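chain below, 62 aa
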Amino acid sequence: MLALLTTGLSNGDIGRRLHMVEGTVKGHVSTILRRLGVRNRVEAAAVAHEAGLKDDRPGNAG
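prediction:
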């Protein structure tokens, strides 16, 4: 899910890709931000970039 955050997708878009409801995605995003110790998606994307994380599934940006 962190890889999808780096693409700038909304919670709704991520939910559709992962077959989850938007509220579930929101909860997971909050958990990711808290565990990474960051305040927002931009900071999370920076952490993912530094770690070399990207979404390699076919048809996905990354």
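The chain is about 60% helix and 0% strand. The two ends are 12 Å apart (CA to CA).
thats it, cya
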